[in-house]
């Protein structure tokens, strides 16, 4: 803990934020960060929920995020965080995996059952197994400690910008990204980023799941390569692995047809990618 925390402090000094942490407000902040308590700090939107059990790390991350213009609420335990999450409705979540009352991967699963908002895992656990499991459960990104705080803020900014671009009413990137597309038993609202059954029930999708499904539906039955789906799922310099794409497609199939696994609308094209059943698509 001490070595990478020291590196984090060094990074803060390099980007000129250490003076902020040592400003006159620090006494109030130190008093506010009581281990085990949930703390709210009011500034400008958007609101970030931070679940981190280490008090020093919680203080450093929240301080830097505040300095970057975000509002932050912080919690040290899963119980506190889930209660705060339901009440405050944050725009983005950052969570550790090593928590005192529950493993962070379990928390990711619980959150994804109810919400598809941007979610980052920030953890010292850097095994491939943890990273893949986190992404498969629905995390949008996995950042290992130690990390540069400017990189964290940049990633948060990028994902919030993309979400705002897709979800803001009347804010259309292109004609292909607007409107509602109907296909067998479902409707996909590209502006509201919402999937519904023909009975009007919403199916909660993660950001990656929605982007994957939207890409397949807009292809109108054409085969979409894994590389194209990688770009749609996570358009960053470090794209996800093929296994991540396959896992997302598997989750889509399970969510869309939980009682009939043979009714899949998404077909696998061996050695190439995936295809939405052309017979299921209708003109939107």
Question: What does the secondary structure layout of this molecule look like, with pairings?
Answer:
Blueprint: H1 2-14, H2 18-21, H3 26-32, E1 39-41, E2 47-51, H4 55-67, E3 71-75, H5 78-88, E4 92-95, H6 104-114, E5 119-123, H7 128-136, E6 141-144, H8 149-167, E7 180-183, E8 186-189, E9 194-197, E10 202-203, H9 207-218, E11 224-225, H10 226-233, H11 242-256, E12 266-269, E13 273-276
Parallel strand pairs: 2-3, 2-4, 4-5, 5-6
Antiparallel strand pairs: 1-3, 7-8, 8-9, 9-10, 11-13, 12-13
Helix pairs in contact: 9-10, 9-11
What does this structure look like?
The chain has 284 residues and is an alpha/beta fold. It is built from eleven helices and 13 strands. The strands form three sheets. The chain has a six-stranded mixed beta sheet with strand order 1-3-2-4-5-6, with helices on both faces. Strands 7-8-9-10 form a four-stranded antiparallel beta sheet, with helices on one face. Strands 11-13-12 form a three-stranded antiparallel beta sheet. Helix 9 (207-218) packs across helix 10 and helix 9 (207-218) packs across helix 11 (242-256). It is elongated.
Features:
single chain; 284 residues; alpha/beta; six-stranded mixed β-sheet; four-stranded antiparallel β-sheet; 13 strands; 43% helix
């Amino acid at each position: 803990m001490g070595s990478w925390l020291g590196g984090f402090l060094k990074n803060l000094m390099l980007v000129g934020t250490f003076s902020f942490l040592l400003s006159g407000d620090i006494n109030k902040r130190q008093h506010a960060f009581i281990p085990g308590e949930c703390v709210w700090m009011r500034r400008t939107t958007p609101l970030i929920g931070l679940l981190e059990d280490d008090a020093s790390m919680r203080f450093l991350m929240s301080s830097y995020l505040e300095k970057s213009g975000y509002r932050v609420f912080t919690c040290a335990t899963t119980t506190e965080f889930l209660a705060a999450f339901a009440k405050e409705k944050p725009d983005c979540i950052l969570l550790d995996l090593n928590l005192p009352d529950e493993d962070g991967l379990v928390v990711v699963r619980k959150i994804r059952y109810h919400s598809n908002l941007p979610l980052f895992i920030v953890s010292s656990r850097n095994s491939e197994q943890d990273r893949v499991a986190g992404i498969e459960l629905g995390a949008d990104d996995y950042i290992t400690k130690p990390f540069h705080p400017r990189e964290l803020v940049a990633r948060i900014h990028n994902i919030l910008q993309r979400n705002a671009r897709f979800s803001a009413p009347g804010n259309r990137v292109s004609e292909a990204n607007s409107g509602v597309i109907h296909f067998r038993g479902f409707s996909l609202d590209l502006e509201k980023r919402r999937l519904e059954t023909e009975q009007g029930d919403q199916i909660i999708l993660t950001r990656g799941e929605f982007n994957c499904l939207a890409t397949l539906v807009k292809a109108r039955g054409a085969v979409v390569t894994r590389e194209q789906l990688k770009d749609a799922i996570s358009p960053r310099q470090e794209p996800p692995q093929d296994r991540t794409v396959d896992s997302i497609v598997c989750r889509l199939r399970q969510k869309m047809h939980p009682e009939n696994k043979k009714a899949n609308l998404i077909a696998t094209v061996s050695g190439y990618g995936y295809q939405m059943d052309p017979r299921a698509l209708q003109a939107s």
